[in-house]
Design goal:
562 residues, mainly alpha, 2 domains, 21 helices, globular
């Protein structure tokens, strides 16, 4: 091992002096950290280091293999892009927190045991909450607290699962876990919360859009992809993940179509893309796993690009509502162009990154005989083009002219978006360097005539459907509204139910209580009448009476017997 310094600690420790560095020197210092991190990864040999024993369990602080290295590289790249995008920011809390957040995510990726994973898992969660709170609005504080509760639940489930697994196996090694034991189920639920499984997903749409323009870019890249990595490491080939992933790809489409907040649209599309990764992990073949992790790599870049473009719009206009935007291509042409590249990438257009990664998952589903999941994934591919490839660029830059003529995004934002756009196109045109980084040898050619033609037909009909609905007035208009998702159950229904019980339902509660007390008194009286000191069953019966009853019972027995 050339450099036995655990990846991720460089950023965590490097965050300490950030509050004390002033001006542009702070930004330069922060930008240098992920560069040094990438250089460190190039010096690491495959294997493990940092082994130690805790409570009789072996811990491995760092495990270096192709899977962890791929996520390590893309996490450092995302950190570099996020720091560059936030160059103009002068928020020491957000800047220091973002470094800790990224460092913790990288540390978790290289963790060789579940205890080390838990430590970094929780550190990343705490840092993410502070990133949300950096928005410094009442909505951000409330969303952060709700997200904190969800993250705490994930941590408790993970720790419980680790404890059960340690008792059952005598090991805390982070390897394939599966669902053969209760510990595996608890750990899967912990990973599922951070991966935004259906019904566990609303923290994402609730919290991410409330962060700052720059904070949302960081949040979009790490937490959910760390969960994808954990699933790929611990649950590859777990079939239930296929159906969970399929559900994740499908349901966000309907919410994204009617959502007015364009950053929330991107949050729903994040759910959609995570579903492809989860389904690939569930299929579990080498092609499917390669597809899932390569799609995570590409997704981090193009999703960051889309959030950066919408962040630039919000930064310049002060709003991100589709109903309040439109016509911005006239004054923000570069941002509009970068947004279109991000939309083409997430929609899996040929020559863009999403095409060469998502197709691996679709091919694996078809080759594995998963016909229904394959069809749903095709539907979801068309749907994501609908809301992320068309809706976001259209309503932000080309729809009805809002009359807004803001300046183009700052130079640092444009540079960050330009680098991300270059990577989106570069991976799409020449995917071989990415394929070489994948966990398993790659024997796959994305650019076949059949695949290209099929994809273009799918996207063409999806675009035609959008145009037809838009021209006919049937497409949901961008209106000021609140989209009700599953979080409606705990953000509106639950508080009002509690309030009704405590206030309006007090009379009912009193009546029920009185009825219960009456029944209790009646039962007590009955028991006392029979078993009390002078009760029926406590009295001394005359001998003659007892003999009469015995003779009667004996006679009845004889009659029934004969």
């Amino acid at each position: 091992m050339t450099t036995e310094f655990a990846p991720g600690l460089l950023l965590i420790i490097g965050a300490i002096p950030v509050p004390f560095i002033r001006g542009k020197a702070r930004s330069i210092y922060m930008l240098a950290l992920p560069i040094f991190g990438i250089l460190q990864l190039t010096t690491l040999d495959s294997g493990t280091f940092g082994a130690m024993s805790t409570l009789g369990f072996e811990q491995i602080h760092a495990r270096i293999d192709k899977l962890s290295l791929l996520f390590g590289y893309i996490f450092y790249i995302a950190a570099f892009l996020g720091i560059l995008f936030a160059w103009h920011r002068d928020d020491r809390l957000e800047q220091a927190t973002s470094l800790v957040y990224v460092g913790a995510a990288i540390g978790a990726v290289f963790a060789g045991d579940l205890i080390t994973l838990f430590f970094y898992w929780e550190l990343a969660a705490i840092a993410a909450i502070f990133l949300i709170w950096s928005g410094r609005t009442n909505r951000a504080y409330r969303a952060g607290f709700r997200c904190l509760i969800i993250y705490m639940l994930s941590g408790v489930l993970l720790l419980t699962g680790i404890g059960i697994k340690a008792i059952e196996t005598g090991s805390v090694a982070f390897e394939h876990i599966g669902l053969e034991s209760p510990g595996g189920i608890f750990i899967l639920l912990a990973f599922g919360i951070k991966c935004a499984f259906p019904l566990l997903h609303n923290w994402l749409q609730d919290a991410y859009p409330e962060a700052t323009v720059t904070g949302t870019v960081f949040l979009s890249a790490f937490t959910t992809k760390l969960a994808v990595y954990a699933l790929a490491r611990g649950y590859a080939g777990t079939e239930i993940l296929i159906w969970i992933g399929v559900a994740m790809t499908a349901f966000p489409i309907f919410y994204a179509v009617i959502e007015n907040d364009l950053r929330r649209v991107l949050a729903y599309s994040l759910n959609n893309q995570l579903g492809f990764m989860v389904a690939g992990i569930g299929i579990g073949t080498t092609l499917a796993i390669n597809g899932a992790v390569s799609h995570a790599f590409a997704h981090i870049i193009y999703k960051s690009l889309l959030f950066m473009s919408m962040g630039a719009v919000l930064y310049r206009t002060g709003t991100i509502k589709g109903s309040e935007l439109g016509g911005l291509y006239k004054s923000m042409p570069w941002t509009a162009g970068f947004c279109i590249i991000g939309g083409a990438s997430i929609s899996a257009f040929p020559l863009f990154s999403g095409f060469v990664t998502k197709s691996m998952i679709l091919t694996a589903a078809a080759e594995g005989g998963y016909i229904l999941p394959f069809l749903v994934l095709l539907f979801a591919s068309a749907g994501v083009f609908h809301h992320s490839g068309i809706k976001i660029p259209f309503f932000a830059f080309f729809a009805h002219d809002s009359g807004k003529r803001p300046r183009e995004a700052p130079a640092n934002m444009l540079l960050a978006m330009g680098l991300a756009a270059f990577l989106c196109i570069g991976v799409g045109v020449y995917p071989h360097p990415l394929y070489a980084m994948l966990p398993f040898p790659v024997d796959y050619t994305p650019y076949t005539t059949t695949h290209v033609v099929t994809t273009l037909q799918l996207l063409l009909f999806s675009g035609l459907a959008f145009a037809t609905l838009q021209r006919s007035g049937l497409y949901p208009p961008e209106l000021r509204s609140t989209v009700l998702d599953f979080d409606f159950s705990y953000r509106w229904i639950a508080p009002r139910l509690v309030g009704w019980i405590m206030n309006g339902g007090g009379l009912v509660w009193t009546q029920l209580t009185n009825k219960f007390l009456q029944m209790t008194r009646s039962l007590t009286t009955l028991v006392f009448n029979y078993f009390g000191p002078s009760g029926l069953l406590s009295r001394t019966w005359p001998t003659g009476s007892m003999a009469l009853w015995a003779a009667a019972l004996l006679g009845l027995t004889l009659v029934l017997y004969y």
